[in-house]
Amino acid sequence: MFRYTTKENQSVYDKNKVKIAEECYDAFKEKVDFSQFDGNGDGKIDATLFTVPTKAGDTDWWPCAGAFGDPEYRVDGVGVGHIITGNTQVESTGNYVNYISSYCHELGHCTGLPDYYLFTTDDSEGMHGTAGIELMDTDAGSDFGAFSKLIEGWFRQDQVQVYDASQGEQSFTLYNAQTDAGNCVIIPNGQLANDYFSEYFIIEYATNDGNNNGVGKNAAWWVTPGESVRVYHIDATTEYGWNTYFRYASGSEFTNQDTGRRLIRIIDDTDKDNFYHAGDVIDSSISGFRSSVSLSSASTTVSTRSAGSFLL
Questions:
Q1: Least crowded by CB within 10 Å, which of 12, 50, 289, 293?
Q2: Measured between alpha carbons, how far is 207 from 177 in angstroms, rounded to an integer?
């Protein structure tokens, strides 16, 4: 982390984030080798965060991430990949939840995750209820959910359990998603793509531990904390144009103004306790789910009986 005072007044940089970025790189290039931050070897610094004082205002400095705007610029022989700019600061020594979660959300964008909140409806929250808390949605102080971790490649191979319909009833054990042992269960719709860019349900056991700790301590007014098993419906079909993107990401032309098929939905998407607990059976009576899943112990064992058609 480096502290820097800009050469010019704020107004010069409000609409020109490239200027403040290049000024900062140039100021510190004699002290640090920026090429070490090209972790994937593509010739670019992976991501850089530029955070300014809160008083800079939200109009031009609301946290956001994007590709760097000067493809010709080089520092220590490398270009610049994603940059994050924002005015979120640590609120106090005891409350830095919003600071961390704001910029972790933006880092999610830098690594390929889209927003899960909605762009074209009056209620922007993409997933509701106790089970609908996810950092790429509108929920500060929360962890990434199982789908985000899956796409980011954060699970070990043995932590991704896949239901095989040809094997009949199967049981899986879920561990606390907010620990290193956290895992998931996938129920595919048809053939599961090796890169997981296909359609499936994904199940996890979420708690208020670890990276969800802030949800319980400093929850926003619209957040009701809870913990147990939750289920997502995923359609991670991809589209290819000038870049690769999720076909059903919020706001895309394929989502029918965010009211149709979407990349991610929480099963039973309502403002209530929509986690599933020991003894619950999740079947076609649940909005958004057509399969049969029973929970046979305290939120840790899932028995999957069948996988039928999928319902949005």
A1: 12
A2: 7
Strands 228-235 and 238-240: unpaired
**∠ CA(222), CA(225), CA(231), 5° rounding?**
100
CA dist 163 and 155 (Å) reads: 17
Specify the pLDDT at position 303.
63
Predicted confidence at residue 144, as pLDDT, reads 97
Segments in the chain below pLDDT 70: 216-222, 295-312
Helix (H) or strand (E) holding 264, with range, is strand 264-266
Supply 292's token pair: 């049969």
What local confidence, expressed as pLDDT, does residue 309 receive?
34
DSSP 163: -
Q: Cα(296)–Cα(226) distance, rounded to whole angstroms?
A: 19
pLDDT in tens, 198-254: 999 999 999 999 988 877 665 566 677 889 999 999 999 999 877 789 999 999 999
- Number of helices and strands in the chain (H, E): 6, 14
Reference 307, options 295, 296, 293; nearest CA is: 293
Helices (H), the chain: 10-13, 17-28, 58-61, 97-110, 146-152, 213-217
d(CA 162, CA 174): 12
Query: Which pLDDT value is given to residue 121?
Result: 81
Q: How far is 176 from 205, CA to CA, in rounded Å? A: 6
**Is residue 147 classed as helix, strand or coil in its secondary structure?**
helix
* DSSP-H helix ranges across 161-270: 213-217
Place of tokens 């997981």: 196
